[in-house]
TrEMBL record:
It comes from the Bacteria. InterPro entries: Helicase/UvrB_N (IPR006935), Helicase_ATP-bd (IPR014001), P-loop_NTPase (IPR027417). Pfam families: ResIII. This is Helicase ATP-binding domain-containing protein. GO terms for molecular function: ATP binding; DNA binding; hydrolase activity. Signal peptide: none annotated. SUPFAM superfamilies: P-loop containing nucleoside triphosphate hydrolases. Residues 14-161 form the Helicase ATP-binding domain. It comes from Aminipila terrae. PROSITE patterns: HELICASE_ATP_BIND_1 (PS51192).
Length: 482
């Protein structure tokens, strides 16, 4: 594809135009974001006697990228720090943003995705954007919401570059609702003798799987987690150096969801038990595709509409005190909410005259609003269909549907081409058990939707004569199901 690599499109002439502006680069994993920084931008900056600050949000990423730069002898121009080191109340005395002419924010979806549990991502974003004498470069494969926040909410003009996504490496896309399937996949992959990465949101759940299958697995989680003592640090370091892990199964939390490369054509499966969609996409991108024949089977934990609806309600309730503060002011907010637990979206700020005021974390607030709109769209389309569209309308299967289809097949075969009256209709209705908002559906139209959703090659046709009304079940071609 033309201009697929970043270095092909962003030339030195382009870099010269940036001149202390805000630049966003949206590109899929493997498009050369890191390569561009440590080669094209490095050469340009070095020729002009300038310096680059690279901000990274995960320690594993820092370790891997530092090893690369050290090996290539490029730490003379590029300094690497974590975002978190920039989020204290005061910056370290030995650090000054003004020493750098380029500030590179790697995986800048961090400001939103981590705001759910880190209340200070807004601090580092504000400090970076306030640096006047440096070009700010924001890189990510999942940048949509952050780009809209910077340009739309903050009103900052940006120079934007976007590169096309190619998900043809996904061999098979499978969704599962029950987490019981996670262990089932592990058993199957071990029996096949193939390799897989399991991204598990819960460090505890991941450790329990590791403990059960420790002969075949490597375990990883964040350093701040209590389970970190079970991490084999030497093996993780070797994995970062070699961009490949030993053993069959690598179990990790999302501490590895960005920046780390796994280059291994033997890695055939990625299992994801992660809620955040941006983080999910980043997890998939840890496998770097090594050619057209390098494919992966993807398994994603799906969310049903009931749970999505609950998330929407929870988020809306969370925003009520925020809206009250914004519309009624600090004093009225204190009167109403003084004895209630303060929302994580609200924090205290000490002013120059030592007065304390309530402030809203705008990055976190924007993240919650984005999540509400996202969940609404997922409810409208259905989670599985929404995610499949992200991957270019990839054809998919649902584990629970496969199981139900097997159970329903003999019933449908038994009823095929027979006249279905009340008793037979009830058998079919209860067997299909199609429900909308918890209510069982009994019309042939809704039952046909259920058959289509399950991928079953049957259709219910209503019939009537002068003396009777009934249904007929007929088999159809598979290509007519879609």
């Amino acid at each position: 594809m033309e201009n697929k690599r970043i270095s092909d499109k962003i030339t030195t002439e382009e870099i010269a135009k940036w001149n202390n502006k805000v630049v966003t680069i949206t590109a899929p994993t493997g498009a050369g974001k890191s390569h561009f920084i440590k080669n094209n931008l490095y050469d340009y900056a070095k020729a002009k006697g300038e310096r680059i600050l690279m901000l990274i949000h995960r320690l594993n990423c820092i370790e891997q990228f530092t090893m690369e730069l050290e090996k290539e002898g490029k730490l003379d121009i590029i300094d690497i720090r974590t975002y978190q080191s920039n989020e204290y109340f005061s910056l370290p005395k030995d650090f000054n943003f003004n020493e750098y002419q380029y500030i590179v924010c790697d995986e800048f979806h961090y400001f939103l995705s981590d705001s759910c549990f880190n209340q200070r991502t807004e601090v580092s974003l504000e400090r970076i954007l306030n640096v006047e004498n440096a070009t700010k470069i924001f890189l990510s494969a999942t940048s949509k919401n952050m780009k809209e926040y910077i340009s739309g909410v903050l009103g900052i003009e940006t120079i934007n570059y976007k590169f096309e996504y190619d998900y043809s490496f996904i061999n098979q896309l499978t969704f599962y609702y029950s987490t019981d399937y996670i262990e089932k996949y592990m058993k199957q992959i071990i029996e096949l003798g193939e390799k897989a990465i399991f991204f598990i949101q819960s460090a505890t759940k991941g450790y329990e799987l590791y403990k059960k299958y420790d002969k075949y697995t490597l375990y990883n989680c964040g350093k701040s987690d209590s389970h970190y003592k079970y991490v084999d640090k030497e093996k993780i370091t070797n994995m970062l150096q070699n961009e490949c892990f030993d053993g069959q199964i690598f179990i990790t939390t999302t501490c590895l969801e960005a920046g780390v490369n796994i280059k291994d054509t033997q890695l055939k499966h990625i299992v994801i038990d992660v809620e955040d969609v941006d983080v999910m996409q980043q997890c998939i991108g840890r496998k770097r595709i090594q050619g057209e024949l390098d494919k992966v089977n993807l398994y994603i934990h799906a969310v049903n509409n009931k749970k999505l609806g609950g998330k929407i309600t929870q988020l809306k309730d969370m925003l009520i005190p925020i809206q009250y503060l914004l519309h009624n002011g600090y004093i009225e907010y204190i009167r109403k909410y003084a004895r209630k637990e303060q929302s994580r979206l609200i924090y205290d700020e000490v002013l120059a005259d030592n007065k304390v005021v309530k402030k809203v974390n705008n990055v976190m607030l924007y993240k919650k609003k984005c999540d509400i709109e996202l969940y609404k769209e997922m409810v409208k389309q259905g989670y599985c269909k929404y995610i499949s569209k992200l991957f270019g309308n990839k054809k998919y299967s649902v584990e629970e549907n496969i199981r139900r289809s097997k159970e329903l097949k003999p019933i449908l075969e038994e009823l095929e081409n027979k006249k279905l009256f009340k008793q037979e209709k009830n058998i079919l209705i209860n067997a299909l058990n199609v429900r909308v908002a918890g209510r069982q559906q009994k019309t042939y139209a809704k039952l046909n939707q259920g058959l289509k959703w399950l991928g079953l090659p049957y259709v219910i046709i209503p019939k009537r004569t002068k003396h009777e009304r009934y249904w007929i079940i007929e088999k159809i071609d598979n290509d007519k199901i879609a």
